[in-house]
Each structure stands twice: as structure tokens, then as C-alpha cells.
């Protein structure tokens, strides 16, 4: 049994195994296997992607989107809920507002647990699909400059992708954010213009409204960095613009038509294939 809790759980070899399967797209059947998706926090893509992945592999699902209709409302503890679903399913995919929740789930679960986002902690499967997307454009990541922009402190996709990337030794990684939203302990800057010309992968993120205790500071910071067609003019022809989505205002909608914008065009489908690969590797007998 193997859980997927953190991007740090992966070696380069593990990653390449997942990617090889995601590229090949020859799937074993998971008929008779069941995936429980326990989403304590809102989700569009990650939820839809896991459900679609399991269905396409021929497996069954227990889709729980929001715990409002479960015994959580009656006061059931997180541990008891997880233990219950670990008896009903072969794998549990969990999203939760608290960082560390997936690790707790893994302590009680008798089946593998996949962290589908734990608060401001991590989102390892998003990082895999992001890296897969980067690799499909740039074969040698050691030649690539990646620029993360936005809410780097609260953005869990950034935390996970950063650790996966470190295994591939990118040429340079820039962290651009308002000072208040920098990753603690990491040197960043608040000057996007300066690094745009050398950037190969521009990774935009949403300012994570739900993590702010003070609505005024959210309002003050939310539009500090916006990608518009003017930004795209300063970006290399060969660069790509990524976003884990949902996009709010940080990328102007007319940028979607730019061929370098890969968030709708590539990342979503790649997410499906990477998750099909992960489910196959964890569940196929
Ligand atoms: C992200 C998340 O939930 O962390 N979305 C996703 O899963 N693709 C990003 C975000 O919410 O901003």
C-alpha cells in the first residue's frame, strides 16, 4: 500500500513511471474497484478529474462533494469518517481545508489515501500534471526558467510543484508575489517585469481569498499581479503560461486565445491522464 500525501514522496523514477503510463494511455481495467472521493472543500477540476479518471478505468465511485449530507453534520469525527470509507472502498481521495488532514487520514485508513489538496499545505497530483505539462514542452528542464506568481504563501499547488521541480534542477526558479504572500523563508521579489523576458514557464496563481482572515488585505492584494495581452508581449514566443485554475482576475480572459496559454488547452486533459496513471499504478492487480 502506498499513499500519495506529499510531492516529497516521489523520486524521479516514480514520476517517470507515472508519466510513462500517462503518455502511453494503455490502461488496465479497474472493474470491481471503488474510489471514495471525500471533498470537504470546494473543487471543480480535481474532483471532476478523479471521478472521470476512475470511471474511464472501469472502476466505481463514492462521490462526496461537500460533507454537508454526511454524518459529519451529526458530529462524526474526521478519523471515524475516513475509517468508514476505508472499509467501503479501495482508495480514498481526500480534499480538506486543514493542512496535514491527508496525513491524519492515512493513519486511520486501511486503503491508500491520495491528498487532493490539504489547506495551504500540498496538492501533489496537481504538481504531477503541471510537471507533465512542462515536460511535454521542454525536454530538458535544466534549461528552463520557471516563474511562480501570486499567492505563493497559501497556494498549495506551488508548494508541491516546487518540490517536484527541484528533482529536475531547473535553470532558475523565480518567486514573484506581494511581500505578504511570499513563501516564508524563501527569497522572492515583487517585480514581474524584471523576470518576464527570461521566463520559460509563467505559473500564475489565484490569491486564495478563503485563507485570509482580513477581507481588506485580500482586496488590497488580489489584483497586484495580472497577466494581460501586454504581459504576453514581453514573454518569449516559446514560453508557456500555466495556471492550476480556478482563474479569477489574475489572467485576462482574452489571453486564453494566446497559443502559449495551456491551462485549458493542456493542463486539464493532462490531469486526467496523470490521475488515470496514478489510480492504475495503485490499484491494478
Ligand atoms: C487549486 C487548488 O485547489 O489548490 N485548484 C486545483 O486544484 N486545480 C488552485 C486554487 O484553488 O487556486
What does this molecule look like?
- This protein has 285 residues and is an alpha/beta fold.
- The protein folds into two domains: 7-122 and 269-283, Rossmann fold (3-Layer(aba) Sandwich); 124-267, Aspartate/ornithine carbamoyltransferase (Rossmann fold, 3-Layer(aba) Sandwich).
- The chain is 37% helix and 14% strand.
- The protein has helices at 12-24, 45-56, 78-88, 101-108, 124-137, 156-166, 192-195, 215-221, 229-233, 263-283, and strands spanning 34-39, 60-65, 91-96, 113-118, 145-149, 172-176, 201-204, 240-242.
- A four-stranded parallel β-sheet has the order 2-1-3-4, sandwiched between helices.
- The chain starts with 11 loop residues before the first helix and ends with a helix.
- The structure holds N-carbamoyl-L-aspartate (NCD).
- N-carbamoyl-L-aspartate binds at residues 45-46, 117, 123, 126, 156-157, 206, 208, 244-246.
Topology:
Elements: H1 12-24, E1 34-39, H2 45-56, E2 60-65, H3 78-88, E3 91-96, H4 101-108, E4 113-118, H5 124-137, E5 145-149, H6 156-166, E6 172-176, H7 192-195, E7 201-204, H8 215-221, H9 229-233, E8 240-242, H10 263-283
Parallel strand pairs: 1-2, 1-3, 3-4, 5-6, 5-7, 7-8
Helix pairs in contact: 1-10, 2-10, 5-6, 5-10
Bound molecules: N-carbamoyl-L-aspartate (NCD).
Detail the poorly predicted runs: none
Q: So, the CATH homologous superfamily of the largest domain? A: Aspartate/ornithine carbamoyltransferase
Biggest sheet descriptor:
4 strands, parallel
How many structural units, i.e. domains? 2
Q: In order across it, which strands form the biggest sheet? A: 2-1-3-4
Listing every helix as H and every strand as E from the N terminus to the C terminus, the arrangement reads: HEHEHEHEHEHEHEHHEH
Strand percent estimate: 5-15%
**What is the tally of helical segments?**
10
In CATH terms, what is the architecture of the largest domain? 3-Layer(aba) Sandwich
What name does the CATH topology of the largest domain carry?
Answer: Rossmann fold
User: Which ions and ligands are bound to the chains?
Assistant: N-carbamoyl-L-aspartate
Q: Termini, distance in Å?
A: 12 Å
> Which CATH first-tier class of the largest domain would you pick?
Alpha Beta
Rounded radius of gyration (Å): 19 Å
Helical fraction equals 25-40%
Quick check: average pLDDT? 97
Net shape: globular
Query: What structural class results from the helix and strand content?
Result: alpha/beta
